[in-house]
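hey can u check if this looks right to u? its 322 residues, i copy pasted from the old doc so theres a chance i mangled smth
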Amino acid sequence: MRIRPTTALAAVIAVAIVPTIASAAATRGHATTSQREFGAAAPALFPVIGPAPNGHYPACRSTDLRRSAHTRTTPDGVIGVVHLRYRRHHRCSLHLRRSPTGLLTASGHRLPVRARAAAPVDAGETARPDLALHYGDAIWGFAWRGSWCGRAARFVRMQLRSGAHLRVPLTGPAPTCDGTSHSVMLRGLVGGVGSAVQTAPPEWSGLTAVIHPAGTTDGQFLTGAAIRLTNSTAQPIPLDPCPAFSISIASHEPDGPSTFDTGGFLRGCTGSQWIQPGQALRLGLPKEQYTFVHHHAKHGSSLTITVAVAGLPHATAHVPVP
């Protein structure tokens, strides 16, 4: 989490206590590491800053790396995660071009599946991917959407900046065949192990988000808030993968405003829920502390809550401080 006070003294304090949001946000929501990696990354509501990585390491070569890739089924195909990590005693930095770049058969032939970037509105962000790349231990998300009736994919193709290609062993399901092959590979995000690195399915553009209920506060914690997702289309929309969220809580007080920023996973998402046309699904937000320890927002002040989920417009609500 991060609190961004605007008063001069508090601003100095805030700089001194900025924690590692990448690891903190990734662990919220009671999901395992592998479940989080298959989640849809949230848009950032605040810049995540910090010191530059320590040390200098040579660029990773293909022989320096352990590599693996796994997929799991979604309603419109599969989503996957590629993991590259330096071998023991061979610490190196990962310098890759846009990846993944394709899928390969067991013999190394490239499958006729076009790889491209997801739409910007569907792509969230990960916190400090530069650290994961610098220290040689990173993951990449991807989606293989559509129908596939061809040869099995056994490798994911990645490309180093040197021009060399990596063949990453792939396990897990492929998209099902509906009679003809018509599929696409969408690049996800790069991040540290445990980060959500998937993009939002295009179908989520048919969802709207409202903070309801907005929750209550005792002047220090926000509790009982939830996001209500409503399907405004004529088709069912699957909530798969589970979405991560970013939240910003602005406290408006007479002596100056402050803003609390964090993120996590929406509570109650199972990865198998469908939102029917005209129907809504409510998912909980974790209890949030938005002030410094031993400080309480003043009676009569108010909070402005903003929540962001990939593929959806931001949701905003206001909560009075009793």
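The helical segments are 8-16, 21-26, 33-37, 129-134.
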